[in-house]
User: What shape does this take?
Amino acid sequence: MFPLVQRCCFLTPFKLQKLTGPRLLLYGRNQTCWPSLSLPLQRGVCALSRSPSLSPAAVHASKLQAFHTSPAFFKKKTPRESEPKDSSFLQLKDSPKPALYLSLAGLTPFVSVPLAMAIQGTYYPELAFAQVTYGAVTVSFLGGMRWGFALPADSPAKPDWLNLGNSTVPPLLACQALLFKDITPGAIMLVMALGIALHYDVSLLPTYPRWFKVLRVLGTVVMALSLLATVTLKTYSEMQLRNDSNKQQNTKQ
Assistant: This one.
């Protein structure tokens, strides 16, 4: 029945079908090739030809291709182009000159107070209180700066409770630092306020320029170290006064 269907549909001679039938079986078993007889069959019987995935020639071709193709992990990988990594302090060159110079000049009162006391070897409570007062003003300025950033209409920061409410935290801590009678807790409170303000500017507002973030980190580190240096000099001077008083009491006895 099958040879009759092939003869009627594809108009191939019956003798040729009888001859090519066994030849095709031999081709599948013994892998022998009959190009002279299989060529007319391929022209006439296109729809009933084998799929490339099942033909032995396709299998051998895929094996040869797999043999001559190297695995993916043996292929030479091109090294990625090294991205230019600029130092963070080099970003200060991109900052506007007024912002850079005014920020560095604003650090002078912080640095000059512990430096002057360390050179003279004497602790001055008036200078320490002046430093804490100036630090409270600076922290209040850093907190209010967020209001100025969030209020414009085209600003990426919205004037919501988070932005406007967080900007009031540093001024409140600065006011609390001025209420302490002792300089030590006031200076420590200012260091905490400076850290909170830096966290707001660097982490919570990523739209600030890169140079401004670097400038904020540098300024916060200098101010915090200056306040801690003043506290250290105060503690050292108090220890010296205690030692001197103890020596005087021992000499009187």
User: Anything to note?
Assistant: The chain has a mean pLDDT of 74. The chain has eleven helices and no strands. The radius of gyration is 43 Å. Residues 153 and 159 are 9 Å apart (CA to CA).
